[in-house]
Amino acid sequence: MGHTITEKILLKHTKLKYIHPGEFIKAKIDLALGNDITAPFAIEEFESLGIKNVFDKNKIVLVPDHFAPAKDMKSANQCKVLAKFAKKHGIKNYFEVGRMGIEHVLLPEMGLVVPGDLVIGADSHTCTYGALGAFSTGIGSTDLAAAYATGECWFKVPESVKFIISGRLNRWVGGKDLILHIIGDIGVDGALYRAMEFAGTVIENLPMDDRFTMCNMAIEAGGKNGIIAADEITKRYVKEALRFGKRSGISQKRSGKYYSSDPDAKYAEVREYDARKIEPVVACPNLPSNVKPVTALKNISIDQVVIGSCTNGRMSDLRLAAKILRGKKISSTIRLIVIPGTQNVYKQAVREGLARIFVESGGFFSTPTCGPCLGGHVGILAEGERAISTTNRNFVGRMGHVKSEVYLSNPAVAAASAIKGRIAHPGEVL
Amino acid sequence: MSYKGRVHRFADDVNTDEIIPARYLNTTDKAELAGHCMEDADKDFAKRVRPGDIIVAGRNFGCGSSREHAPIAIKAAGVSCVIAGSFARIFSRNSINIGLPIVESPAASKDIKKGDVVSVDTVKGVIRNITRKKSYKFERYPPFMQKIIRAGGLMQQLKRRV
Question: Which residues of A touch B76 (CB under 8 A)?
Answer without folding.
Answer: none
